[in-house]
């Protein structure tokens, strides 16, 4: 073997970082945080070790669905510049490896969560993995411009799973936390899609910006933002919506609503003139919006457990 071929082989050998990248760690961080808030805000108590195992299982399950998604999407990942260096299209990880890892971690996380907590929590985790890997990745993503809307359910379920780990039930509180993430996803993602040049059209993925254009996408952003506001505020009237959350929700909704309105009222000439400044701002606001909502819920839960309200 020549030195060149040996070097090429070496560059294609997968390291631990490549296998970890299969799990989509940035997405996993959101899964872990929202699941933790669901667990902390739930009425009742679990042993700290059981709580740790529960969050670990939810994180591993989220990572497993990411690996299955990368296995299925390897063909389009090779086409798009943004994803061409992922472990599978780059050749560092073989597709069958990713499939085996995804299936193994899926089974491990669901079974362990069921043994550690209850059947409902395990069933919700199994459904989340199935929905992302099969319903979204294999069907919705390549068939409808509403893919990110419907597919967003998989990313919205972690707080419901965390809640179920403690209570063994689904309640209005966990439903509203899930609905908050579900309704937040479209304005968050489409704000990004407007200003990020993508290869979705070349890859045959019918994202809304590709199929209907930016004007329609702006209309959708505003529509989903308006629908998001009552979902956010409804949590104020439940047992988990304390004073910190109430103030935070009002301020954040006004902030995000204003940012989305500025995106909606602009035309393409205005957007290109300032390099999509309003769209970039709306995307940044969306990140703060979700994080601060759930952080406020956690703060209120802490205050409530300390007997400072409720």
UniProtKB/TrEMBL annotation:
Organism whose genome encodes this protein: Marivivens donghaensis
InterPro entries: Protohaem_IX_farnesylTrfase, UbiA_prenyltransferase, UbiA_prenylTrfase_CS, UbiA_sf
Entry EC no(s): 2.5.1.141
Catalytic activity: heme b + (2E,6E)-farnesyl diphosphate + H2O = Fe(II)-heme o + diphosphate
Subcellular locations according to the entry: Cell membrane
EC category name: transferase
Name the UniProt record assigns to this protein: Protoheme IX farnesyltransferase
Keywords: Cell membrane, Heme biosynthesis, Membrane, Transferase, Transmembrane, Transmembrane helix
CDD domains, sorted: PT_UbiA_Cox10
Pathway this chain belongs to: Porphyrin-containing compound metabolism; heme O biosynthesis; heme O from protoheme: step 1/1
């Amino acid at each position: 073997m020549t030195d060149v071929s040996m070097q090429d082989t070496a560059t294609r050998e997968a390291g631990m970082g490549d296998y970890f990248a299969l799990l989509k760690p940035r997405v996993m961080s959101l899964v872990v945080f929202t699941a933790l808030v669901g667990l902390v805000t739930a009425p009742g108590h679990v042993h700290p070790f059981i709580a740790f195992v529960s969050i670990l299982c939810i994180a591993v399950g989220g990572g497993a669905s990411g690996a299955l998604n990368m296995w299925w999407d390897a063909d389009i990942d090779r086409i798009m510049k943004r994803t061409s260096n992922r472990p599978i299209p780059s050749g560092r990880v073989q597709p069958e490896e990713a499939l085996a890892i995804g299936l193994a971690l899926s089974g491990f996380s669901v079974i362990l969560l069921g043994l550690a907590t209850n059947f409902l929590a395990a069933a919700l985790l199994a459904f989340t993995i199935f929905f992302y890997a099969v319903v979204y990745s294999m069907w919705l993503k390549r068939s409808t411009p509403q893919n990110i809307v419907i597919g967003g359910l998989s990313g919205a379920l972690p707080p419901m799973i965390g809640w179920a780990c403690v209570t063994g039930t689904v309640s209005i509180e966990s439903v509203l936390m899930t609905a908050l993430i579900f309704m937040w996803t479209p304005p968050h993602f489409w704000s990004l899609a407007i200003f990020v040049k993508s290869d979705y059209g070349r890859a045959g993925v019918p994202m809304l910006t590709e199929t209907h254009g930016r004007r329609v996408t702006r209309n959708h952003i505003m529509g989903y933002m308006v629908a998001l506001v009552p979902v956010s505020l409804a949590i104020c009237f439940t047992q988990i919506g304390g004073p910190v959350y109430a103030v935070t929700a009002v301020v954040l909704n006004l902030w995000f609503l204003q940012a989305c309105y500025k995106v909606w009222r602009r035309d393409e000439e205005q957007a290109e003139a300032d390099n999509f400044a309003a769209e970039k701002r709306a995307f940044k606001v969306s990140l703060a919006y979700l994080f601060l909502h759930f952080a406020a819920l956690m703060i209120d839960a802490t205050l409530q457990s300390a007997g400072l309200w409720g």
